[in-house]
Amino acid sequence: MRKLPACLLLLALACSTSGCVDRILTIKSEPAGALVSLNDLEVGRTPITRDFTWYGTYDVELRAQGFEPLRTRGKVIAPWWQWIPFDLFADILPLHFKDHQELNFTMKPIKAEAADPDVMLQHAATLKSKLQSSPLTKQPSTTRFTTRPSSRPAAHHRSTTASASQP
C-alpha cells in the first residue's frame, strides 16, 4: 500500500517536469539571399532558421534578383516520436527532443531573352492577336438583359438625399 502513493507522487512529479520538443525549420536556397514566403507570409532571406509548430506541407515562394520566382511546396514530415500515441510521451516525459527539418531549393536564372523588352513586347503582341482571333471574343457578351430593372421608385432615394442636405 505504501508503494501506490509513492508511484502517484513520482507520476505527478514526472508530469510537472514535462518534456519539451523544439521544432526548427531551416530553408536554404541556391543562390543564398532569396526572399522567402511560407504560406503567403514573408519570413526573411535564405538561409533562414526559425521555429515552427505544425508538420505538413508548406507553400513556399522564393524570389531573388536575376532569378525566376520559384513557387513550390515543401513537406515537413514528423519524426516517429511525434506520431500518435508516441507524441504524448514525448511531451510529458522529462526529456528534451529536438527536431531540425531542412528544405533546400535551387532557383533558375532568368533567361537573357526573357528580360529583353523587345522580346516581351513581341510576346505581348502575339498573345493579343491570339485573343482577338478567338471565336469567344468575336461574339457579343450578352444578347438580352440578364437582370430585371428595379421595381422600387427612384424618387424615394432623391427625397432622402434632398431632406438630408436641407438644414
Summary keywords:
Immunoglobulin-like; three-stranded mixed sheet; 167 residues; flat; disordered C terminus; alpha+beta; 7 strands
Number of helices: 6
**Assigned CATH class of the domain at 17-112:** Mainly Beta
Kindly report the spatial arrangement of strands forming the biggest sheet.
Answer: 3-2-5-6
**Uncertain stretches of 5 or more adjacent residues:** 159-165
Overview of the molecule:
By secondary structure, this protein is α+β, with helices and mostly antiparallel strands. The protein has a domain at 17-112: Immunoglobulin-like. 34% of the residues lie in helices and 30% in strands. The protein is built from six helices and seven strands. The strands form two sheets. A four-stranded antiparallel β-sheet has the order 3-2-5-6, with no helix packed on it. Strand 5 (56-63) and strand 6 (70-76) form a beta hairpin. 5% of the residues are buried.
